[in-house]
Amino acid sequence: MKPSVLGLLLALAAPAAYAQTPAQAPEVVETPIVIGQSFALPSVIMGAAREINVWLPPGYDQSRERYPVLYVLDGGQDQDFHHISGIAQLGTIVGTTRDVIVVGVASVDRRNELALPTEDPELIARYPTQGQSERFRRFLSEEVQPFINARYRTSGETALMGESLAGLFVVETFLKEPQMFDAYVGVSPSLWWDGGQLARQAGAHLRDHSGAPRTLILTLGDEGEMMQAPMDVLVANLRQYAMPNERWSFTPRPTESHATIYHGAALDAFRQLYATDPQ
């Protein structure tokens, strides 16, 4: 018998204890991905605890710096918080924008919280809880901002961002309470609400402004006459009545729809508001 055949027979006859076993697969380690912190902030003004989400720039815990704060409306975890904090994360990683704290303020009843009162009977019948934007503004000013400023190292530089009905709230806040934030970003604001009254009244509000430095960024996609007409009225009032220190811009985005406009508009706003200093 040839040696190679003999070796094969001996191997087959060897006890199981001497048989070679395959290496055991390494254990898969699972760890959670932590994007930020979520708080249930008790609110006397709103009459219930409200969801507040916070994203901190990488390195926050290791630094002593103070940071600007961007407040995002519709900022719940199942709304736009992850979207906008992701843009902030990208800018930080690649160095195109400054570090910023992103605060997402969740909305529950959007027409109640984000829309100003209307006299339109059809809107009142359809949305009986509508029109409490002033209360929501007090919630931001008297409860949310103090909470954030007490808990985090904030620089005092603030901005407010929102889209659609949240964009309407942004424009209303800029016109009526401009001192609340340094910058305002209104993406596809629903200025059609209440028959476009806010846009028509913009001139009167602008004439009451103090002239303190403010930034207003507006944009609108190809969204039909109902959205475009009141925007044209607002832009005309801004051209005539905006104070010299109020920097404002309106950027049409004809290739975007109401459903697609937010990401690109938010990215551009970040690059405008938080551009890094040239080296």
Description:
This protein is α/β, with parallel strands linked by helices. Helices cover 38% and strands 19% of the residues. The chain has ten helices and eight strands. The protein has helices spanning 3-13, 81-94, 110-113, 121-126, 133-151, 165-176, 197-200, 202-207, 225-241, 262-273; strands spanning 37-41, 50-55, 67-73, 101-105, 154-163, 183-187, 214-221, 246-253. An eight-stranded mixed beta sheet has the order 1-2-4-3-5-6-7-8, sandwiched between helices. Strand 7, helix 9 and strand 8 form a beta-alpha-beta unit. Helix 2 packs across helix 10 (262-273). It is globular, with a radius of gyration of 27 Å. The N and C termini lie far apart (81 Å). The relative contact order is 0.12. Residues 8-12 have low confidence and may be disordered.
Offer a few descriptive terms.
single chain; about 280 residues; alpha/beta; eight-stranded mixed sheet; 10 helices; 8 strands; about 40% helix; about 20% strand; globular
